[in-house]
Amino acid sequence: MRVVLSTYGGRGSVEPMVGLAVRLRELGAEVRVCAPPDEEFVDLFAGIGVSPVPVGRPVRPMVASVEPGSTVGLAQRAAELIAAQFGTVAATAEGCDALVATGPLPVTAGARSVAEKLGIRYVHASHQPVILPSPHQPPPARRGRPLPPGVKDNRELWELDARNANEMFGAEINTHRAAIGLPPVHHVRDYAFTARPWLATDPVLSPWPDSSGLDVVQTGAWTRPDDRPLPPGLVKFLDAGAPPVYVGFGSTPMGADIAKNTARVAVEAIRAQNRRVILAHGWAGLDLIDDGDDCFAVGEVNQQALFAGVAAVVHHGSAGTTTMAARTGAPQVVVPQGADQPYWAGRVVDLGIGVAHDGPTPTVASLLACLETALTAETRARARAVAATIDTDGATTAARRLLAEIDPNGRSLPA
After folding, report:
1. What is the DSSP letter of 92?
2. Which CATH architecture has domain 232-387?
3. Please, which pLDDT band fits residue 410 given cuts at 50, 70 and 90?
4. CATH dotted code for 2-223+393-406
5. Range list of β-strands (E), 299-375
6. Which residues pair with residue 35 across a beta bridge?
7. Which of 53, 66, 146, 280 is least surrounded, with the fewest CB atoms within 10 Å of its CB?
């Protein structure tokens, strides 16, 4: 069987597809991938022997250049992503049995249209729950369209979100659909999500309410197998003293001044706890503030191995970093910058496995207060207890389910 994976976005949208691709191939499927052309994403897939078909512009320079909340160029970028689904992705999906898509609505609505035209199985996958309609939560605001402050009913807000989606992307989607002989869709968001979207999150970290009204299939988080050794210099640093505190903001960009201040605040707060520091460069560009031997800077490393040896993880609150820290039993300090990150910060607090910083810009005093709680024996014990309950391989669950839906008799699945 052949499966095509279509994704676009930061690392949180791309890396889970690497994990799914690994498991699908282990089960005998041929996997094709359409992904953004950033070098680091190409390298991720190259590490599992897959050459992704490039789609859209590189993500990292684009997100670094867009002002927060700005709608400049949004329509053009959406049009490009939609066109890529009907063009590049459609060509890649020829001869495939299923198409799995994740990412922004222009990607997934276009991808489902392609699957509809080809007559193949389509799955919408979300790696965080906040975009899925539920009366238990409000929708995230779409760029340039803030939620009306006077409306508190979540159902009403989701109806408004559906109208916004139609206005922003409906005409472009339907123009491409008409060009390949498909009828128009009148509810773009719900069409893209389907009546049964997949939620690739851990049910302990991210429980989906049964009373949501949406038939969500929760598979567990899709994480890629990672057996890479840590760099020798990092191993030497870890072995030289007590477990350090890790600080990283993943694929969240920051301006140079903000990154410099964030690094300074983090180092000073952690030093005040008599702890050593590991700074991850990431898209934020964090770096050492001096030549002290109590700090070490890293680039791309095996987080599964690293987090097992740290005292705590200070991070932005992405689904991937939150899940990895939880799996390894590392206490967390979440400093949410936006998007779904406040949700994950709340889950960390609810589970008692860490602390949520109030706001995106910590001071030495505010971060120190968070660290004082995260570094207690009670928080570490709770983090270890929760770690034992986390599903370590949702990608296998998803791969088996997908292939079983393509071939209900299971002829292709190994025992």
Report:
1. H
2. 3-Layer(aba) Sandwich (3.40)
3. low
4. 3.40.50.2000
5. 312-315, 332-334, 354-356
6. 54
7. 146
